[in-house]
Amino acid sequence: QVQLQESGPGLVKPSQTLSLTCAVSGGSVTANYYYWSWIRQPPGKGLEWMGAIAYSGNTYYIPSLKSRASISRDTSKNQFTLQLSSVTPEDTAVYYCVKWDGSRWWDFGSWGQGTQVTVSS
Description:
Blueprint: E1 3-7, E2 11-12, E3 18-25, E4 34-41, E5 48-54, E6 59-61, E7 69-74, E8 79-84, E9 93-101, E10 110-111, E11 115-119
Parallel strand pairs: 2-11
Antiparallel strand pairs: 1-3, 3-8, 4-5, 4-9, 5-6, 7-8, 9-10, 9-11
């Protein structure tokens, strides 16, 4: 069974770049047909899908974050990373990494436990 673990700094200053890493076990970030996503939940708000990197290496982002977000992977370490530049307090949220199997649309996927990120000076 795939397991995911987020890691990274819990506090980031405004205008800096947020970097989070998701360590993956029980599955490969290159395995067909998996998609590796970042989802966040600001306090008091709903879940927001941010983007994903596919098994092929292709990336996808929502338009509102396209200019600031970058998702990459390290196949040798079997992990993937979110970088979010020019952060503001509105980026404060719990961040989750998620795996979804594109061949199993009905499956909710596998989620990490989430990590709190606060943007504050």
